[in-house]
Amino acid sequence: MTRAGRYDIDIRGHQILLNGKEIKIIGVRCSNALISDDKTAELIENLDRFRSYGVNTVAVYFMGSRFGDVKGYLPDASLDDACARRMGRIIEAADDLGMIVLVGCLYWGDSRAKEDLDGWQQAQANRAVANTVRWLGQMDYRNVIVDPDNEGMASRAMGWRFEKMIQAGKEASDHVIMGYNNKPDPPDNADILLHFSPTDGRRPYVQSEGTPRNAPGNYWGSYSKEEGYCNYIRVGRYTEAIKRDQIARSREMIEEHNGYVMASTWLQCAPHHGVGGPFMTPGGLAGNPHVDENVKAVQEDAGILWWLQWVKDIYGPWTPPE
Description:
globular
């Protein structure tokens, strides 16, 4: 049974339109939100709170992200029923609030999400993307953007061609917006350019995994990872300098391009080792200056509330176009 959406995202030249009006994407990356019914419900419960701070987009992946190990695809490239049900709940709740969901497909990398997919070839990757887009079309979800392959991880590791995955999605539904998220020049059939993609001046570009550039050891490197530890460290911790850099990068992407999706260990960590993530809430102001103290523990004030408050101060709460 389809559910007609209230909000319809479209692309016109280098603009992103929602119900026919130009918008800028301001979002949070909640890639592991399908890890359980409880975490999906937690995100849904907080959507209106995020919206009140100016957020209009959430990014959620069928294969989750590192340490989450969400297995959104079966070996035959069909959607896992539980994951599809959770994703549908998020998309429908977002649509009720005039918000967008960036729907991620493959997240290859170091995640165990691919451990049952060893025999996959290009055909299975294409089928996974097509099955995702076909399902979105059948459900008449129109407030969505699709990222077929996070950071081109599957394309690089397996030699698969990104443009073929995009084409498979377009053949499955002629309405869904297909993104490109890889470092080589984008193929002509991509509708929107994401994260790793070079910009080209004629299609919209959204930084869909925005992090600070001045975290010691790189934000996703030694600042947040420790060898042999299967979760993030320093979860949701930021120094004042790191906060300033992330805010500057956010402003640049929102004002000079088409938007910014904030990525954080707070939003993406796993429940392992008692951490309890991913946290689908704003959390705190991350005001504790002792970021190198007991790095595997979650500090009381950890979170991204500081960034959300900046968004609200500059751009106001999100009010969708009618």
